Amino acid sequence: MAAAKYISSVCRISNNQVALNGQQVFAADGLLMEDLLPAIYQHFQIGYAKFHKMDNLSKLGFLAADLLLKDSFDAGYYQPEQVGTVLMNANASLDMDLKYYESIKNVPSPSLFVYTLPNIVAGEICIRHHFKGENAFFVLPNFDAAFLKQQVDYLLNNNILQACICGWVDVLEQNYKATLFLVEKVKKENSVEFLIENINKHNPSS
Amino acid sequence: MDTPAIAIIPPVYAVADNITSPIGQTTLENLDALKQNRSGVQTHTDLKISPEPFFASLFTDPIATDKLYTLFESLLIMSVNDALSQTNIKATDGKTILIISSTKGNISLLETEEHTGELKKRISLPASAKLVADHFGFVNQPIVISNACISGVMAILTGLRLLQSGQYETAVITGADVVSQFVLSGFQSFHALSDTVCRPFDKDRTGLNLGEGAATVVLSIHKQNPDDVKVASGAISNDANHISGPSRTGEELGYAIKKALLIAGIAAHDIDYISAHGTATNYNDEMEANAIHHAGVQHAPVNSLKGYYGHTLGAAGLIESIIAIHGIKGSIVFPSLGYAENGVTKPLNVVTSLLQTPVKHALKTASGFGGCNAAMIFSK
User: Fold this and answer.
1) Contact B23, B39 (CB under 8 A)
2) Which of A135, A152, A205 to mutate to test the interface with B (most CBs of B within 10 A)?
């Protein structure tokens, strides 16, 4: 049965900028990826020591999720199993794969190897926010709003999840793009309907 | 728009399958190998993969590959080809979707090719997916799932849901992984590899073996053979505990099992067989045993097939689900190779010799890095 679903918030990180619900909330100039992500972390005073151990894909997804949920999400409203993630990108974990491969020449490091899977970013988000519901990680050539909507609709319509952090998080070297959506069944003040056209307003490829 | 008051959810059947592994190139060959207790795991010396000898299940006879395709892609194509040949399903049908599961795909190209921009495109999973889809003429864009060691089970669950929601009538679900220096060194760095054939759930287990393989299962809302098995339900959960270590309690995998039981509309006691993930690492097997008790299915005969195949990563969930499907069809449960004495805190009913027993409902479980867990139920 179809249930009403709303986008409660959207966080987009690209081009040295962070936008929350379409409003720019952070901008930096000419920073490399490895400096930009800690700069965003510092700017929003996110205290989470494990952040510094993460690879760039996990850092990017972690920051987007943190900012997405910061003002719009009441964790106490849900059971841990009722919140999950549906994430996608084009390059899986290739950014970290290249770095891990370089490290093999010396001593292979388990703390690098673990990040050579794209779904680790979902694991990091789940640990941070104590989400225990379904996760899925898809690898697609391009962002696909219709596919995203189809997957999230199924999970919410069938009461597998009540809230879903979903979207695109992609990193390869200095190229990065993240757009995450918080989708819920409850309508909040600034919610918009979870429709393809509303998803595409924040299309990470555009 | 008029919508019916009650949505009719069609049953979904597994109508054809293939396992391409070092112990057989069809499901039948694999079943025969298991009946003879034949394992693909043996010691290998391959300096391209590891400076030391290692135990793994590898293809030793050369796989016929077209120059267009890598070994990973060739395995997918061989497997899909054999599965489709058992059906009259057309890849070109708009109601057919291709779903591909892999953890590391073409990662071994990093070891042999220069890291150019072109390689970084060639190595991507969507590039492989396109080659495989084009080979068969699939018209819909394939879906690629890369969700650590639950990828194969998640691919089946994704196919089940796409068929239940009416978007497609047929899903061709395939998965593969190959063993590379990249992957082997990573598991070595975790001290997760066994220096003998792995021993899931045994007290002397010391870790896992890696394995190569591909598998395909074709799901359809149209029953094709009288004994086609139903894909009943599935569920996924996350531990929210640690990215490389499983839950301490197993509650989260237990939750996924309970949820799958609920959706299938059966009781814990209805499960006749559990195909466990059983990697033979200390932590995985302990967690999984806890989860099986948590969900109340500890009565059921359980095995892990990792002693035959090693851990085939993105193919594992598919290979093991296909063996479970044939367990239902043939009333057969294979022994858990390598198991002699209980090595988990909460003992399981581990199968030690070939069982001829009716299996109406089979449970498949899987867990992986990132804290992910999956459970799937197949029914007669």
Assistant:
1) yes
2) A135
Angstroms from A177 CA to nearest CA on chain B: 17
Instruction: Pick the residue from chain A with its C-alpha nearest to B245.
Output: A114
Residue bearing tokens 């979902």: A122
Q: How far is CA B295 from CA B53, B261, B291, in A?
A: 40, 9, 6
- Inter-chain residue contact A120 with B369, CB threshold 8 Å: yes
By annotation, the residues of B acting in catalysis are 149, 277, 311
At residue B285, the pLDDT reads 98
Q: Which run of H or E residues covers position A137?
A: strand A135-139
User: Which whole-number Å values give the CA distances from B326 to A74, B220, B332, in the listed order?
Assistant: 46, 17, 8
Extended strands (E) in chain B:
13-20, 41-44, 54-57, 96-101, 143-145, 170-177, 210-211, 213-220, 229-238, 273-275, 301-303, 332-333, 349-350, 355-356, 361-368, 372-379
Contact B124 A126 (CB under 8 A): no
Distance CA A59, CA A67 (A): 12
The three-state secondary structure class of B378 is: strand
The two three-digit tokens of residue B61, written as one number: 């006879």
Calculate ∠ Cα A193-A125-A154, nearest 5°.
40
Coil, strand or helix at B129: helix
Please judge whether B240 and A84 are an interchain contact, meaning their C-beta atoms are less than 8 angstroms apart: no
| A102 Ramachandran zone, left/alpha/beta (phi>0; psi -120 to 50) | alpha
Annotate A9-45 with DSSP letters as a single string: EEEEEETTEEEETTEEEEE-SS--HHHHHHHHHHHTT
CA dihedral over B121, B124, B129, B132, signed as positive or negative:
positive
Which residue does chain A place closest to B9, by CA atoms? A1
Inter-chain residue contact B7 with A1, CB threshold 8 Å: yes
Percent of chain A with pLDDT over 90: 91
d(CA B184, CA B195): 13
* Residues of chain A contacting residue B163, judged by C-beta atoms under 8 Å apart: none
Measure the CA–CA gap between B217 and B276, rounded to whole angstroms: 19
pTM over 0.95: yes
Q: What is the pLDDT of residues A71-123, one digit of tens each?
A: 889 889 999 999 999 999 999 999 999 999 999 989 999 999 999 999 999 99
What is the DSSP secondary-structure string of B211-274? E-EEEEEEEESS--STTPEEEEEEEEEE-SS-SSS--SS-HHHHHHHHHHHHHHT--GGG--EE
Tokens 């390689």 correspond to B119
Residues in chain B: 380
For chains A and B, CB pairs below 8 A equal 145
Which residues from B are below 8 Å from A48, CB to CB?
A: none
What's the gap in Å between the CA of A133 and the closest CA on chain B? Answer: 5
B189 and A150 within 8 Å at the Cβ level: the answer is no
**Which among A84, A79, A81, A90 has a CA at the least distance from the CA of A57?**
A90
ipTM comes to 0.97
